[in-house]
Amino acid sequence: MKMELIQPFINSADAVLSQGLHCTTSIGNLSMEEETYRRKGVAAMVWLSGDIEGRIIFDLDPETAVRVASRLAGAELPESDELVRETACELANQIIGNAVTALNDQGFHFRVHPPVLHTSEEGTRGNEDTEALVMCFETDSGTVFMNVALRYNRRRLADHAAAAGN
Amino acid sequence: MEQFAPVRRSKDGQPIRYLIVDDSVFARKNLARMVESFGGQVASEAGDGMTAITEYDRTNPDIVLMDITMPQMEGIEAAEKIVLAHPEARIVMVSSVGYQENIVAALQRGARHFVQKPVKPEVLYEVIKYVLGEDGAVAHVAGAGA
Predict the structure, then answer these.
(1) Which of A52, A73, B23, B131 has the highest Cβ tally under 10 A?
(2) Partner-chain contact A93 B24, CB within 8 Å
(3) 99-138 in B: which are within 8 Å (CB) of A?
């Protein structure tokens, strides 16, 4: 997977987490996913379609989600399943939205679909076209996992190339 | 959460009434806490564009805070429909997707301003004062500062 596709998501996750949680973040393990994706806690998934397509998953355990939600809200929030789910989705929404903004500024156009909860224990594994990069962000509130599987849309690339050749 | 000098309606001194539109309950509650810290009231909430139109007609709020990426009907389309029916509507788009194309599309269809998520309360506060213009007034709190 091209690093130029991934970098905006890393930058955005770092900015949103450090700003929202008022802490410094560090990137922990970073690896290409070789096995099928296995959910670690509560996972929110966002699909992109357009010049770049694929999906990004944010995954965090329920205790971390409650601490993150409380930091984002500026008040202690009681744990509930809904709060945990909402936190995963909103975090995904904010991080991906900011990354997409940066990619759009580079000339890529695509549609961001609303986050959905990834409820199954396992997901499809990456392939040659769509390898998945897995990384974790260590924060004061706990660990947030990001799993990115994106690729250029070949048809659109061909369209662009044809247009440039004309 | 930080408290701000309350912003009131100039014409009657009443709190500003907000319609908050976002498919995330968490985001709506966060925005609700912010506008309450500005002295405002939440007139209603909606989780998608279709409901936003209905709720606008029902509650006639002073300001709408509208997300963009939502199921059923997205925020820009909902904003356009609200402004067509209510040209006086003050709609502020609040979204994490802040690229220029989106902002221009929203403003062309009648939105008054754009705030990018994660929302900073002090930024939203200034945007709300700007969008209200002369229809809003910062109330002086007795005993607060010089």
Answers:
(1) B23
(2) yes
(3) 99-102, 116-118
What is this structure's pTM?
0.82
User: Given this model, what pLDDT does residue A81 score?
Assistant: 85
**pLDDT tens figures, A121-157:** 666 555 545 578 889 999 999 999 999 988 888 666 6
CATH topology of domain A3-165: Chemotaxis protein chec (3.40.1550)
Pairing mode of beta strands B17-21, B41-46: parallel
In this complex, do B24 and A96 lie within 8 Å of one another by their Cβ atoms? no
- The minimum CA-CA distance between A86 and chain B, rounded to whole Å, is 6
Widest distance between CA atoms in chain B: 50
Tell me which CATH code domain B7-128 carries: 3.40.50.2300
Quick count: other Cβ atoms within 10 Å of Cβ A161?
A: 9
Q: Which chain A residue is nearest to residue B2, measuring alpha carbons?
A: A74
- Give the pLDDT confidence of B31-54 residue by residue, as tens digits: 999 999 999 999 999 999 999 999
**Could you give phi then psi for residue A3, rounded to 5 degrees?**
-65, -25
A126-151: burial string, b at 16+ Cβ within 10 Å, e else: beeebbbbbbbbbbebbbbbbbbbbb
